[in-house]
Specification:
Elements: H1 8-11, E1 16-21, H2 33-46, E2 50-55, H3 72-85, E3 90-95, H4 100-111, E4 115-119, E5 126-128, E6 131-133, H5 137-148, H6 153-162, H7 175-186, H8 201-220, H9 224-227, H10 230-243, H11 248-259, H12 266-273, H13 290-295, H14 298-305, H15 322-326, E7 350-353, E8 361-365, E9 376-384, H16 387-393, E10 406-409, H17 430-433, E11 441-444, E12 456-461, E13 478-482, E14 487-490, H18 494-503, H19 514-522
Parallel strand pairs: 1-2, 1-3, 3-4, 9-10, 10-11, 11-12
Antiparallel strand pairs: 5-6, 7-8, 8-12, 9-13, 13-14
């Protein structure tokens, strides 16, 4: 430490705080985290701690291939081992872009040092051609119109230039804001942290307060697994549902819970979804954006509206209970944060489906469908065996497809993608777009961006790549979707399915070495959270010996 200009007085007898930073030049969502780390350091110093910034793998949704989900577990492993192998007493986790939040928390939970999460924060509202636009959600809308020939190149370029006009994560209720909000509801962030726009001065203040608070958490010896109870995860699920949050939260919350020894399953999402209304009127399922949500009172105001459905006695990193954190929170815009008597949707923003196409489960974001009549639908399957095949065929004028068809993509799951890419919002065939069609039933074992919309059934488990029933579906088979009945089935006899099973052959793998091989050998299915089978649970790992 002396070689870096530190005197003994700087660190002797003080808690050493690791600032785990996912900043990089290739992750635009996190472009302010370098400055944010300095805000955290200021708070740590002021509280009598000794901060050490530690860079880790960045997961940037817009550039990383094949998908950041492929590397969520790698960042979780790096975080856990970083905290285990270096002499730190507690940590502040800097993240926000979709997979960074669960990854950092999974690693910190497994290591179980005092920890606090500081989100990157959402971008400011987008603006294009005089219209308020939201990242992701409006991109999909305008791209469909562009493919249909009703949006010019000039309009498209104007959208690109105006839709993301500041640092931060997507300002819609995508996976980023869903997961940072769920983290706050879990009690692992300071109250209100998840709603503050990235470039708002209050974000720097929050980061500094987090730096001060982590020093206190070390002295109090409060660790993640002291806070992460089954009741806390119920709070996170209810929050996700009330926000109209991303389907990705289902996978991440299951993985996070199991790292804490909580046996969370898909069924809990259905149980809580039946009684949880959507109160946040935020795109893609609503009208507003995260900046509006912040001005309306942010997450504390929404949690206050939901207080009757939350476990208010759960402890949080603030040192207070969740109920104490939200006491006195007010809503300033009743159209952005709705009261219980006037919800955006009365219940069931997400639904878990089962049936002979998804015996271990699938998920649909009910609040994202644009045509409610599609939630009970019967149609002929158009089947694509890969993403490349879909791209090659989807706009073929001779494709035998109409609005009643069910578009199917397979071999896009955890092992088949690989990494379960966000391919689940299959594009509408161009000839149907030109007819004015903007939504169809689409099913896959892939995921979907939280900013996406449409009647898309996702996360079909077990996936087709490992021989799940989706692998046996053939073009022309009838698929039945019944969201109210929680069913997804193909109308194919058991005898015929047995015949097809005998003929099915597994596809060749992708990797013969490295992290890719580790991934395909140990990744679990979507209904188990897509964690590695050797990382789940709370079995202690021996501390490294010092020689």
């Amino acid at each position: 430490m002396a070689s870096m200009g530190c005197n003994r007085i700087d660190y002797a007898g003080k808690p050493v705080i690791g600032i785990v930073n996912t900043w990089s030049d290739v992750n635009p969502c996190h472009s302010l985290l370098r400055e944010c780390a300095n805000d955290v350091k200021r708070g740590v110093w002021q509280a009598g701690g000794f901060p050490l910034e530690m860079p880790v793998l960045t997961l940037g949704e817009t550039f990383q291939k094949p998908t950041t989900m492929m590397y969520r577990n790698l960042l979780a492993m790096e975080t856990e081992e970083l905290l285990r192998s270096y002499p730190v007493d507690g940590c502040v986790l800097l993240g926000g872009c979709d997979k960074t939040t669960p990854a950092l928390l999974m690693g910190a939970t497994s290591m179980n040092l005092p920890s606090i999460f500081v989100p990157a924060g959402p971008m400011l509202r987008g603006n294009a051609s005089g219209q308020i636009v939201g990242s992701g959600a409006d991109v999909w809308k305008y791209w469909a119109d562009r493919r249909a020939g009703v949006v010019t190149r000039e309009t498209w370029c104007d959208l690109e230039d105006g839709i993301a006009r500041s640092a931060g994560t997507c300002m819609t209720m995508g996976t980023a804001s869903t997961m940072t909000s769920a983290t706050e509801a879990l009690g692992l962030s300071l109250p209100g942290a998840s709603s503050i726009p990235a470039v708002d001065a209050n974000h720097a203040k929050m980061a500094s307060l987090a730096g001060r608070r982590i020093v206190e958490l070390v002295w109090e010896d409060v660790k993640p697994r002291d806070l992460l109870s089954a009741a806390a995860f119920d709070n996170a699920i209810v929050t996700t549902l009330a926000l109209g949050g991303s389907t990705n939260a289902v996978i991440h919350l299951i993985a996070m819970a199991r790292r804490a020894g909580i046996p969370l399953t898909l069924d809990r999402f259905n149980e809580l979804g039946m009684r949880t209304p959507v109160l946040a009127n935020i795109r893609p399922g609503g009208s507003y954006l995260m900046e509006d949500f912040y001005y309306a009172g942010g997450l504390p105001a929404l949690l206050q509206e939901l207080s009757g459905d939350l476990n208010l006695d759960c402890r949080t990193v603030s040192g207070k209970t969740l109920g104490e954190n939200i006491a006195g929170s007010k809503t300033y815009n009743r159209d952005v944060i709705r009261p219980l008597k006037n919800p955006v949707i009365s219940s069931m923003s997400l639904a878990i489906l089962r049936g002979n196409l998804a015996p271990q489960g699938a998920v649909i974001k009910v609040s994202a469908t644009s045509q409610p009549e599609l939630l009970q639908h019967r149609g002929r399957a158009i089947v694509f065996d890969s993403y490349d095949e879909m791209n090659a065929r989807i706009d073929d004028p001779d494709l035998a497809v109409d609005q009643s068809s069910v578009l199917v993509l397979r071999n896009a799951g955890p092992k088949g993608g690989p990494g379960m890419p966000e391919w689940g919002q299959l594009p509408i065939p161009q000839k149907l777009l030109k007819q004015g069609v903007r939504d169809m039933v689409r099913i896959s074992d892939a995921r979907m961006s939280g900013t996406s919309y449409g009647t898309c059934v996702l996360h079909i488990s077990p996936e087709s790549f490992v021989g799940g029933p989706l692998a046996l579906l053939e073009e022309g088979d009838i698929v039945e979707l019944d969201v109210a009945g929680r069913q997804l089935n193909m109308r194919v006899s058991e005898e015929e399915l047995r015949r097809r099973r005998k003929l099915w052959k597994p596809r060749a793998g992708f990797y013969s070495r490295g992290y890719g091989q580790l991934f395909v050998e140990h990744i679990q299915q979507a209904d188990d959270g897509c964690d590695f089978d050797f990382l789940e649970g709370t079995e202690p790992t021996p501390e490294p010996e010092i020689h």
